[in-house]
Amino acid sequence: MKDIESLRDDVIISQFIGDGTGEIRRKYAESKMLASKPYVLWQLDFARVFREKGGFDIVIEKGFLQVFQLRCQQAQAAEK
């Protein structure tokens, strides 16, 4: 029986359609060595949320967070 990590690899690699040079596979292999992954497999990493609730109600992206932080800083500066 395959372990979860092998199944995860199978799912990811199955998405590399048209990678004739193998560049995407090479980058993926390199990313597996990193402590922080440059991707999230939402359906696998949050399987329970998708199974029980059908997904997320809201997703906050990094760009939104940066704008929010900037506005907070501007508001604090204006109060001084």
What is this structure's SSE topology?
Layout: H1 4-14, H2 23-31, H3 42-45, H4 47-53, H5 62-79
Quick structural summary:
By secondary structure, the chain is an all-alpha fold. Helices cover 61% and strands 0% of the residues. The chain has a domain at 1-39.
Molecular structure report:
The structure is a single chain. About 60% of the residues lie in helices and about 0% in strands. It has about 80 residues and is mainly α. It has a domain at about 1-40.
**Can you give the mean pLDDT?**
78
Q: How large is the radius of gyration? A: 19 Å
Query: How does the overall form come out from the CA principal axes?
Result: elongated
- Helix/strand order: HHHHH
The largest sheet, given as strand count, sense and whether it forms a barrel, is: none
Provide a count of the helices: 5
Helix content: 55-70%
The number of E-state strands comes to: 0
Question: Which structural category do the helix and sheet elements fall into?
Answer: mainly alpha
Oligomer: single chain
